[in-house]
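ARCHIVE ENTRY
Sequence with per-residue tokens
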Amino acid sequence: MWANDRNTVQYRPNSHRPGSHSRRAGAAPGNSEGGSPEGGTRRRLRRIERFLADLLGAQKDPDRRKLLHRYTIWHLVRRLRQRNNGRPVTPQQFTAVRQRTHAAVAFLNWLEAHDLALDTCRQADLDRWLTDDSAAYRQTAGHFIRWARANKLTTVHVPALRWFGPTQPLDDQHRWDVARRLLHDDTVKPEDRLAGLLLLLYAQGAAAITRLTVEDVEATDKGVRLHLGRAPIQLPEPVAALARTVAANRKGHATIGALTPSPWLFPGGQPGRPISTTQLTHRLNQLGIRPNQARSTALFQLATEIPAAILARTLGIHTDVAVAWQRLSAGDWANYAAEVSRRTTTS
């Protein structure tokens, strides 16, 4: 069905049944490569490839199929691989690819229904589509339209929505109150304490926390280092002690009676799988933590204290995200670096 190279999908309508690929590959049904973090990454990539293969194979018009192949495979998937650079594909990224693909198809369907094509569509036509309540994916399709314009396939334009920061108020006092409790309250499960502190102190989202493995915890006589991004961070006590405890005593349901230890730092209820983002979010909610708001607060504070490049390298976030938060928090590290340079020169 696919795989001539990393960015090529071969498609044939109805070319597979659910689960048939894993059986052909010799993997056990229901556990296809699910026992390792790398397996989770490959599994989501294959789901994306299967989805795109089916969708492209269903396109009867060869020109439309070629256009969608160019957008989905050579832009969406290729960009995803480059951006992740070997890191796992998140559920949010998987959903984004699906939604943007569906949006492109919906926009092309609308054009066809109104006797238009991408190259004949004018701005007035696009404005009519944007105000058509029956049109689906009107906001999401902007990504496809901007791509088409950048590749000189159309003259119409939809401006990207500019991000102006978090939509909810940032409560730094509440963040520190909960963090202090998790640092010292032994009545809370160690794994819940560690997950909460990783979010509150290091701005790790629930999805990123679920993907942490035991190998990400580097415990030596000199202390504990945690790999969240390309550069590990040194954990202070008592966070370091919590990381040691959780790594040594993983208690996910799936580890009971398992032949081999789970590689995940936070195992889930299914064999070889980490805890789900939904379940972890529920447990964090019970601690009084709202992950999105708490992470925004943590990122805002960290961006005022740490240069964007270091923030991205240590926390495992994209550099553009770190820069955006730094600007939002008015952490002007360019001026800071210049000031340090002047001090060094005059001293």
User: Anything to note?
Assistant: The radius of gyration is 24 Å.
